[in-house]
Design brief:
The chain is an alpha+beta fold. The protein has 14 helices and 15 strands. GO terms for molecular function: hydrolase activity. It comes from Rhodopseudomonas palustris (strain HaA2).
Length: 474
């Protein structure tokens, strides 16, 4: 490996080295490629490679942006013209993107060199990354455990220091879940902050958004500056920030009013180490001068039932479009059992059922938003169980009935903020006795990433995580 200090830098730091001509984009790219070659046989985080495309990017000349020369991975759900995108599905194993998505275009404009795609479960449906097509993506802290999902490949690659920052997306927790499982930072932005076009105006009924997972807070903030803003097809627009997000990093958050819970949304018992970590984080926040109190929003509907309907109907459309394109019915040679079962559930739902789920999502959103009337931030566990073991969720099983109850125990709270559209982040502040990371989830008011970035920056200074590295690490 040519650049031995590579792991000591975040993305902004690597770009600064390029600007100072202390290292070239080509040297950084070859370092990332060498690290992928060395580590990915253990992790299976990078499932599509286009190293030569990245080399050609550099040869043509990179844009002058905040991440010029920084190696980068796009999640295997987004399109980059001329490269394979499989969506984690057997049917699309050889699919080549005909054009570049808006978000991917903005990543390119930031100056990154995209050398591959990171692993996702089939269509991003699960909170683990174990597609039939590509196999399981393993957690660099313990290879017997999942890296989380659906941005599991991105989080594993960043945690293992293959690269400092990578694309991730979140429709029910898919940035925050793997960030927690792998011990990195994952911010889900406000609804409509970042673009989703040109092929769709919104995803999963407005629940989905794209951003990154990263080693540092400033990488997340700087990338948000590079990505945010509407496009011609945007159905609505997020509130404009008061100043560049990068300027919030290191800014005094003031005395915040923070509510917290160490319990599940559904009242189920959560892992005692995780509950203790939430209480310890509350004490840390109190010690930093914030006002902290224990309480949680009361919800008028069941978030799990709401998201199940919304996701099933969207999955049903995905399968239907594939059938129209192929001129035949889809079978489990094409898609996993879970995908087909979800589509079948959609076929049994009516338009009224879908509208009822959207109404329930709005009612949940209103309750969560009202909860923020007199608080600035809400703290809760990102995951309520430690990262699942590989194989605990089997999307090809003949009996899928155990998956929903497990998800209710594992990720009861992440989807609330997809429904409300509020920004939420997982911050790597704790760990289990066995050495697995524990992320703390902080949510802010709609449009208020600024407060979350200031708080994350304060926590990064108080309890640094950058130099905590997993056993499988470059």
């Amino acid at each position: 490996m040519a650049f031995k200090d590579y792991s000591d830098y975040d993305g902004v730091g690597l770009a600064e080295l390029v600007r100072r001509k202390q290292v070239t984009p080509g040297e950084l790219l070859e370092e990332a490629i060498a690290r992928t070659d060395a580590l990915d046989p253990k992790l299976n985080a990078v499932v599509v490679r286009h190293d030569d495309d990245a080399r050609r990017q550099i040869d043509k000349g990179l844009p002058d942006g905040p991440f010029t020369g920084v190696p980068f991975l796009l999640k295997d759900l987004d399109l980059l013209a001329g490269t394979r995108t499989t969506f984690g599905a057997s049917l699309y194993k050889d699919f080549v993107a005909p054009h570049t998505g808006t978000l991917a275009g903005r990543f390119l404009a930031s100056g990154v060199t995209i050398f591959g795609k990171s692993a996702s479960p089939e269509f991003g449906l699960m909170p683990t990354t174990e597609s039939r097509l590509h196999g399981p993506t393993r957690n660099p802290w313990n290879l017997d455990h999942s890296s989380g999902g659906s941005s599991g490949g991105a989080a594993a690659a960043v945690a293992a220091r293959i690269l400092p920052v990578a694309h991730a997306s979140d429709g029910g927790g898919s940035i925050r879940i793997p960030a927690s499982a792998c011990g990195v930072l994952g911010l889900k932005p406000t609804r409509a902050r970042n673009p989703l076009g040109p092929d769709r105006g919104e995803g999963w009924g407005g629940f989905a958004c794209g951003h990154v997972v990263s080693i540092s807070v400033r990488d997340s903030a700087a990338m948000l500056d590079a990505l945010h803003g509407p496009e011609p097809s945007s159905p609505y627009v997020a509130p404009a920030p008061e100043r560049p997000f990068a300027q919030e990093v290191g800014r005094d958050p003031g005395r915040l009013r923070i509510a917290f819970t160490d319990a599940s949304t559904y009242g189920d018992a959560i892992d005692p180490e995780i509950a203790a970590a939430v209480r310890d984080t509350a004490k840390l926040l109190e010690g930093l001068g914030h006002h902290v109190e224990q309480r949680a929003p009361k919800l008028p509907a069941d978030p799990a039932e709401v998201i199940a309907t919304i996701v099933a109907c969207n999955t049903g459309l995905t399968v239907k479009l594939a059938e129209q394109a192929m001129g035949r019915a889809m079978t489990n040679r094409d898609f996993e059992t879970l995908t087909l079962a979800s589509a079948a559930n959609a076929g049994r739902a009516s338009g009224i059922d879908y509208c009822a789920a959207q109404l329930a999502a709005f009612q949940i959103s209103r309750a969560v938003s009202d909860f923020f009337t007199d608080i600035d931030v809400f703290l809760s566990p990102t995951l309520c169980l430690p990262p699942l073991r590989i194989g605990e969720i089997d999307t090809m099983a003949s009996d899928l009935s155990g998956i929903s109850p497990l998800l209710r125990r594992y990720i009861p709270g992440t989807s609330l903020f997809n429904m409300s559209g509020q920004p939420a982040m997982s911050v790597p502040l704790a760990g289990t006795a066995s050495g697995l990371p524990i992320g703390m989830m902080f949510a802010g008011r709609f449009g208020d990433e600024a407060t979350l970035l200031r708080l994350a920056s304060q926590l990064e200074q108080e309890r640094p995580w950058k130099n905590r590295r997993p056993p499988v690490c470059a």
